[in-house]
Amino acid sequence: MNTNSFNRRRDASPHESNQMVFGIRAVIEAIKSGKEIESLYIQRGLNGGLILELRSLIKENELTFQLVPIEKLNRLTPKNHQGAVAFISPITYEKIENIIPAIFEKGEVPLILLLDGITDVRNFGAIARTAECAGVHALVVPAKGSAQINPDAVKTSAGALYKVPVCRHESMVKTAKFLQESGLQLIACTEKTNEYLYQPDYTVPTVVIMGSEENGISTELIRIADHLAKIPMFGEIESLNVSVSAGVLLYEAVRQKLAAK
User: Fold this and answer.
1) 160-188 exposure pattern, b = at least 16 Cβ within 10 A, e = fewer
2) Residues 41, 76 contacting (CB under 8 angstroms)
3) Which helix (H) or strand (E) holds 189?
């Protein structure tokens, strides 16, 4: 993807909802046509030529899928699904490897938000909305263990998910290391530090890492982060909602950038 396609992504026309595709042949054709697969469910124990073709396409396109009992598929649709149901994403996913050069080419300082295991759809949408307002260049999410980008997420984001590129990658650690090698510092929001969020310099190329409310940021990401940053707490409740925490860190970055002008 070049800089022009990066700009087109921000002007993409919104879709109203995720489209369900069911039936093995229909799912195969959706993948072949280049549709963005948000989620894919295949019935356990299926055999035959068509299912082998589907599995081959899944491997070729590095798609994530779930093997599920037939009852799960029957709950998704009462129609003849033949053991395969897919949902088409309302957005087009990007690769961070393409986004970073485009940002530098535009003469901008990258600000990336990496979301490690945010599974709540509304939290994800709220984070995307704040990220767009704060000038974040891209969101990075894992291929597995992340909130689905569905109409609820898009609505909660107030349309921000059509404006901020979303990059979906298999390994958050490998992606974070790539960003470090590209000249970006990693700032992990965690309580496992004595350093407050105000101490790092956000005016340089930066990746802000947020973890899930249940498990926080993975140990591997904590280990490679350049800075650990915590939000000061004075009340009896010892944690903020993750979307609020993301807003606090991102707007510290905004404050520093304004002060540096």
Assistant:
1) bbbbbbbbbbeebeebbeebbebebbbbb
2) yes
3) strand 185-189
DSSP string, 124-141: HHHHHHHHHHTT--EEEE
Per DSSP, helices labelled H in the chain are 3-10, 24-32, 49-60, 70-76, 96-105, 121-133, 151-156, 172-181, 219-224, 242-260
Please state whether the predicted TM-score (pTM) of the whole model is above 0.85. Answer: no
**Mean pLDDT, each 10-residue run in order, the chain (261 residues):** 41 51 92 87 92 92 90 92 91 93 96 95 95 98 88 90 94 97 97 95 98 91 97 87 96 96 83
Q: Which has the closest alpha carbon to 192: 226, 163, 156, 216?
A: 216
Coil, strand or helix at 224: helix
* Bridge partners for 186 per DSSP: 207
User: Coil, helix or strand for 248?
Assistant: helix
